[in-house]
Amino acid sequence: MRLRVIAVVGVVAVASSAVVVALASTSAAGLPPYTNGYQKWPKINKKPFTRCGPPCAHGGVKNVYASRKKVGAEYPNGTVIVKSIAQTGDRPSMPNQVAVMRKVAGRWKYIEYQLSGARYTVLGQGQFCQSCHARAKANDYVFTKR
Description:
5-stranded antiparallel sheet
């Protein structure tokens, strides 16, 4: 009996730790912590743009921010690119959509978020985004050019 209690306590402790780690891996609004403060990063675009496409996956008023500058023709590992997509009436600090690219081990990881109430939830990710960004291979898979 004592071993069962210890086993149950152990399982509960591991599960609780997993929940804490999962919650800690997002910001208060549901975006990943590596995007925190993106509005203060240098913008890639000179002014907000509203034209869409082709391709057109993100309709609205857009700004694109980069955590790091290109080195030569490519962004270095660890670079995060954030595109904020605002619709009329959105709060500036909480755009309707946020698209994120993060370069890890030479490859971009993609994820797009949709505002739902006061939190962002995942709208699409991975191959869904990569299939479109392949068209921008000459600019390190980033459509917006400085």
